[in-house]
Amino acid sequence: MSRFNPASSGPALDAAIDAIKGDLTALPAASQLDSWMRLLDGTGTGAQGAMLEEMTSLKGYISKGDVANISHSLRTLGQLTTKAATETDVDEELSSKLNRLGEALLAASTSVVG
To answer: Dmax over Cα atoms in the chain, in whole Å?
Structure first.
């Protein structure tokens, strides 16, 4: 199974959860995506590879200001993040943070406005 880097994932997930409360259609959100993407194993099996692909797409939507696709991409990331919480080899604390992040992404997907 693919793995999150436990040494740096916790603080990065906290930052990601906080960032979701901000303007997800602005370019600073793309910077947050970059830091999150560095934590993922794109060669692993499971949700992480799909998450990397979706985050790459999301960065493109943010740069274009494509609100409809930003919303769709956030929803997809929320689903994948929640899935990753159960399929990756992480401790209970990181799994909990991944679940919270997934829920926050799903909620954000319905609140993005252009």
So the answer is: 38
Backbone angles phi, psi at 22, to 5 degrees: -90, -160
Using a cut of 0.90, tell me whether the model's pTM lies above it.
no
Q: How far apart are CA 94 and CA 71, in angstroms?
A: 25
- State the Cα–Cα distance between residues 58 and 52, nearest whole angstrom: 10
Domain positions in the chain are: 6-111
Confidence of residue 25 (pLDDT cuts 50, 70, 90): low
Q: In the structure encoding, which two tokens stand for residue 31, read together?
A: 């910077």
> In the numeric block, which tokens belong to residue 11?
């603080």
- For the chain, what is the total number of helices (H) and then of strands (E)? 5, 0
Rounded to whole angstroms, what are the CA distances from 18 to 37, 41, 62, 66? 16, 22, 18, 22
